[in-house]
TrEMBL record, chain B:
One of its GO terms (cellular component) is plasma membrane. Gene3D superfamilies: P-loop containing nucleotide triphosphate hydrolases. The lineage of its organism: Bacteria, Pseudomonadati, Pseudomonadota, Alphaproteobacteria, Acetobacterales. It holds the Pfam family ABC_tran. GO terms for biological process: D-alanine transmembrane transport; L-alanine transport; L-isoleucine import across plasma membrane; L-valine import across plasma membrane. This is ABC transporter ATP-binding protein. PROSITE patterns: ABC_TRANSPORTER_2.
Length: 352, 248
């Protein structure tokens, strides 16, 4: 990372860390708590799941619609195994054991999605990942003995960490923020490792990657495994945030919401996932108040349409454009642009 | 007796109704410089793609130093010692010159799959820098590849093909699109390649192909029609008929 990018990341992180203390200076106490838990906390949790999609898209050129399902696998694993969840399916596990198990389950599901879709790309990858997501959704919905049908599993209240209760909005917010920051920095580290560079090579030119001695399939599957782990972290936090999980949280609507967050935020950089998630959460929460309760989806749709039309690279692309206009120089969200240019080139190459 | 670096026996490749390669057989000996010439559609690039594993032959066999590689996948062939470039540069546009070369160096090493960043003293990184130097790209080492000129991209292509220390280097029209000023530099690069390396070259430009080659294979309609040293190629009546027409 460039020193300016590191500085910007640290400033944003410090601001986000301090926000729960800053908000009460400007808002009444109950509203400050509402913003901390229901807007920012929720945006971070769904931002993590969206970031798993953005990671695959930015660095691998793969758009996967299975990420919400993978998050749901982590959530259901936690709810099935952890002590205190209702109804008790397996139970008896503490959070210290059930959370790692959930992350392993999500990573394995990510690897399975990667292995099944390994030979597909573009629209076919979208379709196969959507089919997998809907298949798992239906399986969970109809298998009442293991997943308790429509009702799902409740009372997943979260652990107590060093004497701090997860149900406390401040505690949950900071745990979610810490997790998101660790995953975000982890991605920035990973993309400069041999694995990350080869993944970007696959995005730009899979044929050349193979000609250099790499197994494209192995790297693709591993990338889906990494994305599965990231989505799993979001799935665990989302289940604790919602005090449980039901099939609706991994259905088609939820799947599309994650895609909208990623696209609105921008697929050129992992930070776009959090920006998109915040925009989505704000409009999802307040659209009914601002406009008309029955037509709030129209307002949300219009806002997203405007963002995508103004900047095909999403909200993060607007930021980059503004910086260029202000003469701050060119910055590096090169994933989307690079990927488009190279996909075009790859298309030309594969034409017989 | 020394085994050929590449041995093709009856290699054919069909795409539906199109017979792109027809019963191609020849040997390329270790250290040999072989140029493959022919008009557009002669099957030269198809031959390259078949040897490198982009698609298997419909019939026939391919051996690399006595090892049958006919059914191996491209990355497996690369690990056995084949390096190649493409007719149109296939580079990683979103990465820097150094990153492109580093990936290329790591591709044939056992530690190619790693979740750890290379250390400051990493041998692969040192070799990537050395390659950039040899390809006259060291001043652009941190530049994004998307910003390179066409000539620099071709140089990087050759560097990446060389990065895995191949035993056989296959260059598909390395001079394509180069300005006249860049061509002598390419010829110099080709002549500086070590003699331990076997070179197979597709090239339309006779001024590049003939000085660089020991033997020339001329193809037409998917078949080998002439195989001769460069000094006999320009006067060969079959070659003249192919390039100048029957009525010359």
């Amino acid at each position: 990372m460039h020193s300016r990018a590191i500085l910007a990341t640290l400033v944003v992180l410090a601001l986000l860390l301090a926000l729960p203390w800053l908000l009460p200076q400007f808002l009444p106490a109950n509203q400050a708590q509402f913003w901390t838990a229901n807007i920012l906390g929720r945006a971070i949790v769904f931002g993590i799941i969206a970031m798993s999609l953005t990671f695959l898209a930015t660095y691998g050129g793969f758009i996967s619609l299975a990420q919400m399902m993978v998050a749901g696998v982590a959530g259901y694993t936690l709810a099935i195994f952890v002590d205190g969840a209702l109804p008790r399916i397996v139970g008896g596990w503490g959070y210290a054991a059930a959370i790692p198990l959930s992350l392993v389950a999500a990573t394995v599901m990510g690897l399975v999605v990667g292995a099944i879709s390994v030979r597909t790309r573009d629209i076919y990858l979208l379709m196969i990942t959507l089919a997998l997501a809907m298949g798992v959704f239906r399986f969970i919905e109809t298998n009442i003995a293991w997943f308790n049908g429509y009702e799902g599993i409740r009372n997943v209240v979260g652990p107590t960490l060093f004497g701090l209760d997860f149900r406390n909005a401040f505690v949950f917010y900071h745990v979610a923020l810490g997790t998101a920051a660790a995953l975000f920095l982890g991605i920035l580290y990973l993309v400069k490792t041999p694995f990350g560079l080869v993944l970007q090579g696959i995005r730009d030119n899979p044929r050349r990657v193979a000609a250099l001695g790499y197994s494209v399939g192995l790297h693709r599957i591993a990338a889906f495994g990494v994305a599965g782990f990231i989505a799993g972290c979001g799935g665990v936090l989302s289940t604790i945030y919602n005090i449980g999980i039901s099939p609706g949280s991994i259905g088609l609507g939820a799947t599309v919401n994650i895609l909208i967050m990623s696209v609105v935020g921008g697929l050129g950089h992992p930070a776009g996932a959090f920006i998109g998630s915040l925009i989505f959460t704000v409009f999802d929460t307040f659209a009914a108040t601002i406009y008309d309760r029955d037509r709030f989806n129209t307002l949300i749709g219009l806002v997203f349409l405007v963002i995508v039309l103004v900047s095909p690279d999403g909200a993060i692309g607007i930021g980059a454009k503004l910086r260029r206009l202000l003469g701050a120089g060119r910055n590096h969200p090169r994933g989307a642009e690079g990927s488009r240019a190279s996909q075009q080139q790859a298309g030309e190459e594969t034409t017989p | 007796m020394t085994a050929p670096a590449i041995r093709l026996r009856g290699v054919s490749r069909r795409f539906g109704a199109l017979q792109a390669l027809r019963d191609v057989s020849f040997d390329v000996m270790p250290g040999e410089r072989r140029a493959v010439l022919g008009p557009n559609g002669a099957g030269k690039t198809t031959l390259f793609n078949t040897i490198c594993g982009d698609f298997p032959p419909t019939s026939g066999s391919i051996e690399l130093f006595d090892r049958d590689i006919t059914r191996l996948r491209p990355h497996e062939r690369t690990r056995l010692g084949i390096g190649r470039t493409y007719q149109t540069s296939l580079l990683f546009n979103g990465l820097s010159v150094l990153e492109n070369l580093f990936i290329a160096v790591r591709g044939v090493r056992p530690n190619r799959f790693s979740f750890l960043r290379p250390s400051a003293g990493d041998g692969g990184m040192a070799k990537a820098r050395d390659l950039a130097d040899r390809m006259r790209l060291s001043h652009l080492i941190d530049a994004e590849v998307v910003n390179l000129s066409h000539g620099q991209r071709r140089q990087l292509e050759v560097g990446m093909a060389m990065a895995g220390d191949p035993r056989v280097l296959m260059l598909d029209e390395p001079a394509a699109g180069l300005s006249p000023g860049d061509r002598p530099e390419l010829l110099r690069l080709l002549r500086e390649l070590p003699r331990t390396l076997t070179l197979v070259l597709i090239e339309h430009d006779m001024d590049i192909a003939l000085p660089a080659a020991d033997i020339v294979t001329v193809m037409k309609d998917g078949e080998v029609v002439v195989e001769a040293p460069p000094d006999r190629i320009e006067d060969d009546p079959v070659v003249q008929a192919i390039y100048l027409g029957d009525g010359h």
